[in-house]
From TrEMBL:
Domain Acyl-CoA dehydrogenase/oxidase C-terminal stretches: 200-312
Protein name: Acyl-CoA dehydrogenase domain-containing protein
Recorded family membership: Belongs to the acyl-CoA dehydrogenase family.
PANTHER family, A to Z: ACYL-COA DEHYDROGENASE, ACYL-COA DEHYDROGENASE FADE28
One Pfam family from the record: Acyl-CoA_dh_1
Record lineage: Bacteria, Bacillati, Actinomycetota, Actinomycetes, Frankiales
Amino acid sequence: MTTTTANDELLQLREALRGTLGTDGQDLQPTVAADWRSMWPALAELGLTALCVPEPLGGFGLRADAAVMTAAELGAALYGGPYAGLTASAHALAQAAGDPVAGELLAGILAGERVCAFGRLGPDGRLARLVDGVPGADALLLLDQPGGGLMLFADPDGWTADPAPHGFDVSRTCGDVTVSPGAGRPLPPAGQAVELYELLLAADAVGCVRRMLDRAVAYAGQRQAFGRPIGGFQAVQHRLADHAVRAQGMTLVVRAAAGLFDADPAALRRAVATAALSVSSAAPLILHDLLQLTGAIGFTWEYGLHLYERRVHQDARLAANPRAAQRSLAELEGWTTHAH
């Protein structure tokens, strides 16, 4: 596939996504959809679930670039579904497609009929904290951290979810999950699913930043102070320009990592950790400063900037960043090895 063809396909997918999500207009008021599942079949028809599934299993191959673009658009739209986890789950299930239960669930995901959340089991093997999409998902794929394998829970009767501790991000539903002993089905290691999950969460945050930065720039051109738009003042111009440069930098490191899914695993891990650290460190600071730049209106519930600031904080928590990314980079570079 040529670069031109791939770019054209990405542009077509982006326009189709924006049309379905209703974000193809200018300066639309951010809204939170209470029922994300009602829109999911229409999104699944665009092939979003198949982007990182091998072609022999009904997917499009490992199109991490398209998945990253999709995650950014869904973040910009405040879409509440667990796209990062669902895509990572589909990718991991494809590695175990020989398992009949995994194969059946994967087929349901590709058809838009099933939603599988992705998370991490704690040391006790029973509790998974902060799982995006529960309640709402009808299957769970949990990383068994000590062994590196996966536990599949294909029946909602096999777990209980408590969303009460995680209401900070009102655009999504996250919960702590307690699984029933013996209800899980062990699957092989996750392959690149963890890297894909973390990268898509970073892309989601990038989409949030870009959407709010565009709105802030438009607002600076309209809001008057002392008889001129506030965007005409150098102090405002410089801060917006700095944020635009940082946002572009985050976009580039995420795209660069997406292009390495066929590369050496260590190079991919390093690139994803770099992208995750870059985004999780910068995105909340940019959005917080945009609150200041937009003045009193930015602090109102109706303007919606706070919805994006909450979401990028939650993206970092879901991916266990930025501390986990710092540790991962330190380990990859050998900085944690004590000299003798």
